[in-house]
Amino acid sequence: MGGTRDVGWVASGLVLGGSPCYRIYRLTRGPWRGRGQPRPSRSAEDITDDSCHDILNEEQLEKLLYLLESTNNPVITERALVTLGNNAAFSTNQAIIRELSGIPIVGNKINSLNQSIKEKALNALSNLSVNVENQPKIRIYVRRVCEDVLADSLNSAMQLAGLRLLTNMMVTNEYQYLLGSYITGLFHLLSVGNGSTKVQVLKLLLNLSENPAMTGKLLSAQVDTSFLSLYDGQMANEILLRALTMFQNINNCLKVEGRLANRLPFAEGSLFFLLYGEKCAQRMKALVRHHDVDVKEKALAIKPTF
User: pTM for the full model?
Assistant: First the structure.
């Protein structure tokens, strides 16, 4: 998609019903070239129409990617990313965008100083990452996204977008090692974030907790004692159940490896000391009497480890 082309572009946006659906126009002053083949000049051609439900075809996606690559206008860039992100929710387009070399075009936008553009780029990459074949091309952005997530304003839209992308990328074990040095930061974010941030961080940590190769890194992470508040009986169930499942997963991984938690060497202040300490044991005993059946079952499954 790279290269300088003698093409003029004009873009305008239309928001319908509060949804980010845009009509983008292309005006040409000469032949438009894509994938090495000349295309006839057209006047004021729609790249997308006014419906959120229509899926762009390959030719339209190619034009949209070129627009995204060539424009320096932040408004157009953001609208193009929204349109592309919406279309990347469809499996067919996830493959087409990859084949059009669109992933680096989107990925480059996470370097933008404009937080809204960065967020929209992360959302588009998140949708693209659902396709496993796209993940090798997205993996190069993982460490940068981790750094941005931990440095960004707490509970911001960009932070949540980054966490969603990381969660999708960590569904399989292949790239989880990339998060090794960021786990302590993620636990800090889990402690200080609001409900939405807590849920998204827990989704990410849950993926890691299923992998025995990550158990040691999780248990060795330095974690504030406020982490134990996740196991309070008054905690929202969507948070409490995920926190309990993470604990269960860690226990299961230890069993797979034939190790006992109380014999593992971890430093004081680590997740290990919190999970397998007396205060957490008391919380598990209390949760056995929780009114929610799912919470009670998970607490019962964990309690015998103490």
Answer: 0.84
